[in-house]
Amino acid sequence: MSEAISDNKERLQKVLAARGVASRRACEELITAGRISVNGVIVTELGCKVDPAKDELALDGSPIAAPPRLRYILLNKPAGYITSANDERGRRTVLDLLKGVEERVYPVGRLDYDTCGLLILTNDGELTNALLHPSYQVDKTYQALAEGQITERELERLRRGVRLKDGMTAPAEVRLRRRDAKGSLVELTIHEGRNRQVRRMLEAVGHPVLHLKRISFAGLQAGNLPLGSFRDLTAAEVRALQKLAYGDKKGGSK
Ligand code: URA
Fold first, then answer.
1. Cα–Cα–Cα angle for 124, 128, 131, nearest 5°?
2. Nearest residue to 57 (alpha-carbon basis) of 104, 49, 123
3. Nearest CA owner, ligand 1 atom 3
4. Which of 51, 55, 60, 112 is labelled catalytic?
């Protein structure tokens, strides 16, 4: 129906079904019954093609909105921001950092107020649920500066699992990066997502965390993205996340 020549035209019943109006067959019936309009004009032929990005569709006169664009954002979170959408104490939230992002995106999991580093935000609720499902938790790597000089024995305890008040932690990968006057710099890769887990693990072996940064989530890295900045994930990064979340069932088909 759009005047402009466009390569993006699709059959009306297909677009209606994709917007959740009804099944494709039931959408055909709505069209032939004269209940669908395109740019204000009732259309009753099934051969009609529309441009979903430009043409305005309505059912019985009520607009049928296009679904929001799926957005996948990687933020390098600074300390001093909370990871929920609002805070009763009026603290700044990570959403305050997403200037110019119009879609309502939500964090995939959380980072503490004082933790910095990689945080994914998206409006793809299905992917978020799959990535956070307790039956399948993705790998997350943290770099922690911990107080004092951690010993090889304590590192081994972290690797095997330590007892926290909510139970033993699962085996983790733990690497010592540096031990000096500032403390011990330790990298931990865990797949669980318990509240303040890394801080509690290090505290349990006698080395409270002074500074905590997430450096990797599900294989993604912040690279040289400045603290407080964000970028959209590339199509390949989104496909990799989908593959992790859904296996081969859905990866790359979205
Ligand atoms: N573990 C923590 O202790 N804090 C975080 O923010 C993330 C993991």
1. 140
2. 49
3. 196
4. 112
0.90 surpassed by pTM: no
Ligand 1 near 172 CB (within 6 A): no
Residue in the structure block whose two tokens are 């929001």: 68
112 catalytic? Reply is: yes
Q: What is the pLDDT of residues 204-225, one digit of tens each?
A: 999 999 999 999 999 999 989 9
Q: Which amino acid is at 188?
A: L
Burial label for 53, CB within 10 Å (0-12, 13-18, 19+), is: exposed
